[in-house]
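Model: Ready when you are.
Researcher: Fold this.
Model:
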Amino acid sequence: MARDGVFEALGRINLIGEHTDYNDGFVLPVALPHSVRVTASRRDDGVLRVASKQAAGVTEVRVTDLAPGAVTGWAAYAAGVVWALRAAGHPVGGFDLLVDGNVPRGAGLSSSAALESAVALAVTELSGVALDRRELARVARRAENDFVGVPCGVMDQSASLLAWERHALLLDTRTLAVEHIPFDPAAAGLALLVVDTRAPHRLVDGEYAARRRDCHRAAELLGVAALRDLVGEHWDLPEKLERRVRHVVGENARVLAVADLLRAGRLREVGPLLTASHESLRDDYEVTVPELDVAVDALLHEGALGARMTGGGFGGCVIALVEQDAVDAAAAAVRSAFAGNGFTAPECWTATAAGGAHRVDPAG
């Protein structure tokens, strides 16, 4: 059994399926080439030592002392994975972990899940713990939910661990059943344009948790296990909860419709569903901010086939399906709109669907 190695996991963009994962629904993410690498070495003294090339300082703690609140800041995402594995009864001891990554933090591209996934892969492989990728995703999710305190669903970790190159990952978050569906915009003469609005993406300030509570309360009032079990368009609920439910039910339907179109090779028809998703997130789920809405409006005005915010909302990124030869014009339109509104200049780039987490070849 090896004592050290380098492991890499990727960020993700969610094509569609926002705020459905914690409602037992469907999501359709792709992994990004942006990655987090963890150089890991086993220790024999029961100490976990975590450092990053992107941050000052070193976190050092005995694995027997790991508990929620024992580690704070970005290192909690790594330490939480070790804690979750040990809490599940797996024989995990001390490690040196050196983190290096280029997933933009705060952009809603799941830098946290990439870190968790890379650590989970590193620690289990080097400890001789055999877990399949779905179980690793559950471990990483528990680290984020129970150790860090972010009530996320399982989509981000699943995308980072299970994705295939040039495919989208259709994930049923209730059963963790997956289907890899071809997604290659370039082959259709298109591009997936990503706009990082530079509006800070914050999920720990209570709003994300509040939306989750709304959904659970609505499910309780309607007598279902989760909103995924609902159909129809109207429910006997307070007005705010009615809107939350309308988004989740509609978004699940949009995910499945996009999956059908991708299976049929009809990528160009996906655009209107992306835009409908954004409108629902803006009006019914109320998780957009001005930067997100301005970016979507500018992209659609410039001729994008469809555009939407991606991620949890309250900042982060917008994606748009655009013609390959219109990428520069679309990006310029967003920059101009941001300048006109006094917003921080956005960053624009095109995304390709990458493969999932893996051990890095020493020569690679």
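Researcher: Now this one.
Model:
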Amino acid sequence: MIKRLLALVFLSAVFWPSLLARAEDVPSPDGDSYYYLEVPPGGLAEFFRWHPLRIPLVSHHRGGPAPGFAENSIEAMQNALRYGPGLMEVDVAQLADGTLILMHDNTLDRTTTGTGDVADTSWSDVQSLTLVDAEGKQTGHKVPRLSDALRWATGRAILTLDIKVGTDFSAVVREIETAGATDYAVAITYSLEQALEYQEIAPDMMMTVTMRNTEELAAVEASELNKDTIVAWTGTRLTSKDFYQMLHNRGWRVIVGTLGNPAYSIDSQIRQAGQDSRYLDILNLGADIIATDRFWAVQSQILNPNIFVFTRSKLYR
């Protein structure tokens, strides 16, 4: 039965999730339940407002790929929810005909049965392709449009959208609004300037804003950003407990990235040491959300059924 959650060495970056999946088996989850996040209408900002009793969450890099489940696929995200609730970080790209799809690379070659540049391809060509997993095996799953992912996410998980270069942010916002998914979508920004540009287009949209040190924090505070729409991204290196507390004092939840190049990422260090409990240390340091390539490992540490209230719901189709 489904449980519905009521709760407010150098390697290329392109292959990070794939290499982790190859290096480590992903265990099967206990039972056949799915863990869904529900956000009350208009409640996303409140959901992300920091509270001392906050519930720790996982952000699934590229939608939580695993053997048999390709990155940036709806099927991978649904599978990941068998391990626990959370955010789904996905990549949004735009095709030549304007269609918005989930796709990380600039080409179709690595993750699909097709070839060629994404920006030069139309939806009529992409929709016939099949996604492949990290081992290059065909999954039988299709490339999702952003609209498909937004409809899937509503009532299930929050999408954090990594909007690729050349993709029209205004078009992304229109799709979110058309899908009625404003409570389930967060924009990822990579600079204060980009955050301000996004805010001009979508003033009320939640967004991640980079604050890795006190200088970047001060710049955000001095800016005209809406402080109620911020989730603090603090990068892929740990900092001090005091700094995380400064962010909490401003009401912002903190995302810490353990993902990254397998040669030196925190995920890789923890895996090699065989000490998954170190994810709890990161939460105790001040992280509220862990962005990871090892979602199953983090969920095994943080999932505590005593924290959550569940009701049963119909099986996902």
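Researcher: Key takeaway?
Model: The first strand starts at residue 2 and ends at 6.
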